């Protein structure tokens, strides 16, 4: 197996302003290897992959690729050299055609003197799509007419078409449906069979264990361990990720699903084009109600509609008789909402911790309709202390915090105003296991105090570990209801999701 | 190592955050050196006189800028308010009604603009471009075919003094300062500018903030209209025409980020307005021509903003 | 590296641009650069006195000619320095400029701006700064109010009646030659007084020959009715959509048009349309003796010009100079501020124009030379008195001035 | 079905100018005059359309990338002054005037772009600075007088209806070609819709921004050329007065964006400008005072924006009908 090194990374260091992302990482990548890269968010795995893919330029350390020093100045150049990456975030551009996205940044190949040969461009793009077995999308389709999954497939087609020697896949599978994943896995195997390398980044340990030949564990920007297939063992990997053995309970220890009969929130017959198709549910006092499904089953939209951030075309949400029409009424009725997209929706990154926490608590902070710094600071400090938010001061901008601390700020903001019901959309996405555990315990504690939760999650273990009741959604409908049970297995649930 | 870097970095940040104040102090110093002994109470007085109107409108405008919006029609709105107050005085001969009319007109324009923006779901900037045309044609309509309309200068002579104008500025500034820093509206508008989606998810109503901001600006516009009449009781087609852009320049000069958000500060309006007036005085003392004056102003303007934002550079170009 | 390149690029580019601008500027402008005002050498007696000049439009060609006369001729010959204002188009701007001049320590202000003149006069009186009007006039009532103002010097310039007369004379000039098809350009009618009065003058001349004028209720220029005469009108200023020039082209191309009469800005707005129409059309206008009209007369586009000459503002300087020298009595009309009419030079053919043009634009030998002005300046000519001054100003016509010079 | 679709598209595209034409014809007929009475009216119409088209193309170039450029008007004025002086001083042939002016305005655009990417400030700020400098240069260069060429007959005959039509068509062809068939155009579009992704991928953002500014400058140069040669006169502008030049272009730009959904955007802008050209001619024929013109333009802009922004809601209102159609399928 250990034949030829294709890429050698020596002592890679990278800093973003005040945060250190990588502190001296050495990784050797071999031909024909599927390498898993695993670590909590902020561990540096995305930073590392973006460095080799040419997105980040200024870093310290050395890259040796195919025996030569290597320093790509952008993604296109990296790809031309044989390193292609499918990025975690949205990687396609709206309002332009599929073909233009596939050949973004290298249109100069199709034509000369800055002019374009459209025909050739479209032909090549269709070829790229055919290559990975996509026939329902054509080169002249506009990106905005495609759904998220198909857009991701375009990115995959784009990278694969260049036939790179190293393919980097950064948390892409979460955005894909079952069919999409099968396409991706086929590509990965095809690469391996052709003696090319794949770097697979994922939070899904099962996926990694199944697909990878080797695993590299990163934590806090440091390399923790390289693992061979023989060493793959879930608990051991988890321990490496966190850096210590987790003490105390991780999830809930009890298996009791009895909750109060009091209904605190009622969802009736919600319909929304493409997303929701007649959703009904009741949330009881002190209940943790889980909602699971595939990424695009409509559960994220459901969360937004419940909070009044989006409007349904039919049906309504009510809390003790009050209809929720917008965020304001929702908040008045004691509802809080933690968005899945933390950096863009839940927080204002270029505002301080203080501003982010106090923004929903101004009604509580104000005295005689005025807001004084003294009261505000006391209010915020209390939350900062309760949630143990690590920052220089409460005046620090949220953008400088780690993922876990950012999420703590979001929690603190809603708990500070003493919300009775929280809609949590993927609340532990990109959060360290340690923080994750703390949050789970907090949720449990609050549940015991009589707060109610709607927990929307893509992680099944999180759902089975926490909820009293679990609703599975598919194509905008609730397809199955499970109650908390020791025997509840993930494979039972998955069947209702796909 | 990391620690030291951090400290140095935030120290620099702190300094550039106050660069507009340094700019003001520098201008005061240059003015002092240039004018020397000829600085009198009169000099101070005219600096205040000349800054007051811009400062008032700019103070109100900070609200609109704080949530990342942009109003280009403020000058025309002030002109309309001033016109109406002149007409009101000529009908009623009451200074009080004149002030009231001016504020009412200012507020009404604000309400109409914000309601159009909110109900019709129009982008504020483009809306104000259209409003600029509408209001300037309204000015001509109010002129009714005359080259100018006026009130007797004795009528307002009692108010034509520095203490009164300063008093109005201070009152309005305190009102805005208070609302901006000590009420929900102020906090919410800053947060709205920083991240509109997060603000919406935190229950901040874009509509409410927009309407309140425009009403506050409207009060400022009304006061400015009134003061315009006091300062120069004869109004014509071009009255206050360049005020809108003077306000923009002043606010930017004062250190207000045009994108709004957390770094918004209400003091930028007053700092900026006084800086611009002092800059004019300094340039005058050098004896430049109109053209040279404007070039010097433009270069300084870019320089000040450049220094103020030196810590907020991104990899991609700002838009 | 990249960043560095950008900066170098910007620098190189800026230099290039400056070079380019210099190239085009240097070649085009035969006159000395009027911006240069630091060249006045200290004369023997005392510190230089500052005089503020308020102008309504820094880009107006007449005012630019005035500025050249003051800065290139008067500053060289008298111990004064002129400070010029920006364009003052509102009462507010006028007040700001007055404040600034006072703050700069001027001894006097000569004003060509009239947004709210009475307020400015009040301010100058309070500040102890002399004030004189270089163009335009005061009503009797206003003059009355100013009779005991020690710092108000007086006014020289065409009165509104004079403006009306200029328009009348111009129209009459063509009517008498038998022309019957006119295009009237009313300029800033009704907002600009001077344009309004000139237009009224033209209307009066037409009414005298039987044309009926129907005024409009909204104050804009009205319509004409006549069997014999055809009269079209244009008013307003250019806009960004091209509508103004569309209207101008339409009117100029109206069949049968013989004469264009403009209340101002003749060549600027109509020269091109005339050139493009290719028809034989006369043009009479009220403007000034400057390059544009030199070209216009040479090309046969204009054949009647009532215009100001650059040094027509010499006498008002003389009056102000007397005042700041403390010789107020020679500019007092029976103890009151003076108001003297000064009209236009009128050129009705190319030769007349060229003669006047030459004298008007000379900075070595302007119409009002130092020798001429010294005749009414007390410190140079102790025998002078107000009556001298008044008749000096009133002899403004080209012939009278050339006689004086000889 | 496809035929029906294209007919519908064509219908939407031409309905706006045709509608305006019908309304204006009606209004002029009431007053007993016709919209196009002689060649001068055709010329006015063509000239307005050309000026507005070029201004709107230039405005849209940067505005749609989120860059508001205050300096457009000042570039037109300054470039026409410099270019004309150079042409006259060096005795260049008359037809070369447009090329000289466009070259100069390209340089001015380049400078704008360089200032923007060097200072890395929001374009709305840099363009205010640049605009002030350009305005002031018009003053400094001409000693405040502006430039009058009313006796340069060989220059004044340039903006004939025929030449204007050629300029308009060639200009459209060039802009269309650049935006749809060149790498620059594609990169521009990609940067416009996904700045960060495009930059990460390695698109030359700075180069593209500079070229965009240059192109916008050159388009404004054409406007400067037309204004200079039709008016024979370009005045000096100070204190922000030059910005008004772009206001006329907002409505066509938005109409262009709307029509662009059904056809090509530059073409849409052209159709929008054509509409405004008709409106302008209507103003001339109806002899409306300036303030009324501005007022009407502003109202048209508001009305159109309102329509545009609430299309989503309109669709919702009509959604029931659509649903029933779906069921019947």
Automatic annotation (TrEMBL), chain A:
Domain (ABC transporter): residue spans on this chain: 7-245, 259-498
Coiled coil location: none
Molecular function GO terms recorded: ATP binding; ATP hydrolysis activity
Keyword terms of this UniProt record: ATP-binding, Nucleotide-binding, Repeat, Transport
Entry-linked Pfam families: ABC_tran
Keyword Magnesium: no
Keyword Transport attached: yes
InterPro entries: AAA+_ATPase (IPR003593), ABC_carbohydrate_import_ATPase (IPR050107), ABC_transporter-like_ATP-bd (IPR003439), ABC_transporter-like_CS (IPR017871), P-loop_NTPase (IPR027417)
Protein name in UniProt: Sugar ABC transporter ATP-binding protein
Source organism (scientific name): Natronobacillus azotifigens
TrEMBL record, chain B:
Compartment(s) of residence: Cell membrane
Gene Ontology MF term list: transmembrane transporter activity
Entry membrane topology: Multi-pass membrane protein
Source organism superkingdom: Bacteria
TM spans (from-to): 15-33, 39-65, 72-89, 95-117, 124-143, 163-182, 209-229, 235-254, 266-288, 294-312
Record key words, sorted: Cell membrane, Membrane, Transmembrane, Transmembrane helix
CDD domains cross-referenced by the UniProt entry: TM_PBP1_transp_AraH_like
Pfam families xref list: BPD_transp_2
InterPro entries assigned: ABC_transp_permease
A GO CC term attached to the entry: plasma membrane
Protein name: ABC transporter permease
Organism: Natronobacillus azotifigens
From TrEMBL, chain C:
Keyword DNA-binding included in the entry's annotation: no
InterPro entries attached to this UniProt entry: Peripla_BP_I
UniProt KW Signal keyword: yes
Transmembrane spans: none
Segment forming the signal sequence: 1-22
UniProt KW keywords: Signal
Protein name: Sugar ABC transporter substrate-binding protein
Automatic annotation (TrEMBL), chain D:
Keywords assigned by UniProt, alphabetized: Cell membrane, Membrane, Transmembrane, Transmembrane helix
Source taxon at top rank: Bacteria
Location in or out of the cell: Cell membrane
Spans through the membrane: 12-33, 45-63, 70-88, 94-117, 124-142, 162-179, 210-228, 240-260, 267-286, 298-320
Gene Ontology MF, one: transmembrane transporter activity
Topology with respect to the bilayer: Multi-pass membrane protein
The keyword Transmembrane is assigned to this record: yes
Pfam family, one: BPD_transp_2
Keyword Transmembrane helix applies: yes
Record GO cellular component, one term: plasma membrane
Location, primary (coarse class): membrane
PANTHER family for this protein: ABC TRANSPORTER PERMEASE PROTEIN YPHD-RELATED-RELATED, RIBOSE IMPORT PERMEASE PROTEIN RBSC
Name of the protein: Sugar ABC transporter permease
Species the sequence originates in: Natronobacillus azotifigens
Source organism phylogeny: Bacteria, Bacillati, Bacillota, Bacilli, Bacillales
